[in-house]
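Hey, can you fold this one?
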Amino acid sequence: MIKDSIDRAELYYNLSDSVKRALSYVRDTNWAKIENGKYLIDGEKLYININSYKTKDLGDWEAHKQYIDIQYLISGEEKIGISRLDCCNSKIPYNTERDIEFYDGDCGDYITMRPGDFMIIYPHELHKPGIKSKDNIEVKKAVIKLAIDY
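Sure. Predicted structure:
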């Protein structure tokens, strides 16, 4: 897991060409003008889901196998839980079509995300997004899905 401000995105360009492309896209986009929805950048290899929602008190741990998540907070504030796969138990088996598996567990750490922050979450890491920081508030977030073989 990597968490930083999009202002320092270039520090992570050396991870891979695909991470560089994704972070450059995030950095160079005027997010105020983008509506919620799914936007293809390079087909299903690199795309963005933009959602607005109210943060919640609790959530489920989740993991993906086919995609790296780059979560970018456009507005609001939330916490994202981060944990290792080996400290939680599968709750809902892996769904290949949705590329998601849900887990139970009482482990992990929570990181506060503020506007302009991004987090890169790899398939071997559990995450619990959308958790309230102080109050349940409205947030807008872009989740960049980066295929692991891209």
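The CA atoms of residues 78 and 134 lie 8 Å apart. Let me know if you want another pass with a different chain boundary.
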